[in-house]
Request: fold
Amino acid sequence: NNAVAEFDFGVKKSDNYWEQGSAILNSKTKNMKAPRPPFVPFNRWHDKVSIVGKRSKGIYFSSEQTVKGTIFHEILGRVKFSSEAKIVFDNAILHGEIDGKGHEELLKTIKLMESNSDVARAFSEEATILNEQTILTKELMQYRPDRISILGNEVVLIDFKTGKPNRKHHKQISKYLELLKQMNYGKVEGYLIYTGLNSIVKV
Reply:
């Protein structure tokens, strides 16, 4: 069997859209030259290219807002204490993850949290921080809050959201709080931080 496995670069559907390629198991296609996507000389590639998967009922595109939300969520997850936030955001700029406007928006979110005394404590150095830690229930269900700050016998739970308020968000946080209460902490509080709206909602 002289078949050679190769992979093409995809098919150009329009000037701004390429469909994912696939493996070619045919020796006759060994010398095929597949078209290559255009080179984008821009370090902030998230604004230019979105990687999406094909599904049985069509092609789904990730929106700019979704991409931005994912990036902001990841960067905020690196911040343990408010005192180190600017350094984290500066590094994000250096690595091309955000631009100056994104930097300002993230700093605005930190200032918002500092203006709320209860939330500010959760970002103080007196707190023990657990970012993206999985809670495993006896039913083997897994839950992963964005941030848990432990202050002695008190716990402040924070979840970042970049979209609009939704009932599901409250239900999600309420479940997290229920699980934390089962761990016998004296006081448990939960907050939703809407970065795009610059608002804090206590659950």
In short: The helical segments are 64-76, 85-94, 100-114, 117-122, 167-181. The two ends are 64 Å apart (CA to CA).
